[in-house]
Design goal:
Number of strands: 7
Structural class: alpha+beta
Strand content: 25-35%
Strand order of the largest sheet: 2-3-4-5-6-1-7
Helix content: 25-40%
Order of helices and strands: EHHEHHEEEHEHE
Length: 177
Amino acid sequence: MSLEIAQHPAIRHAVLHPLDTLLTSQFQSSLSQSDGASFRIRAARRGDASEIVGLLTSERGTPNVETVGWIISHPEAEVTVGVNASDRAIGVVTLYHGPSLSMGGRCGTIDDLCVTRPWRRRGVGRALLESVVARASVLSVRRLELRSYGDVTLGMKEFLHACGFQRVATTVFERPC
């Protein structure tokens, strides 16, 4: 399944800021929870690789530290993390972006959206997605897709819809390499 953002205001109105400045200015002040816990959104660093592996392994599969470190450093991929007050990763999302001939500009794909179970339904996933949408706007992305592999629960569909995404008909063919 592929989900695509449709006429999201952030995609049409880019504000040029470095990523960390953009993330801090938009999300830092509103991320304290009523239970006293707080989190912030920031660009991932190579030192976060093992925590990201742990997060994704517990939820999805078995990535390795070298691959995650390589993706964090890749020029067409941006990994963003939600971190708790101790600066430990509690959520992650990856934005891949590159040129598209058919779109006549840059396209983006959101992948690896994952929030650890204790931090779900506390705004971390929404803040991660909002940060990626804002970054896509800065990069002048013309189409932004979120791909989900496997079953999508009703809760996930509702969450993504509330974040401005809508399901689109698409056919994806895969070939193992």
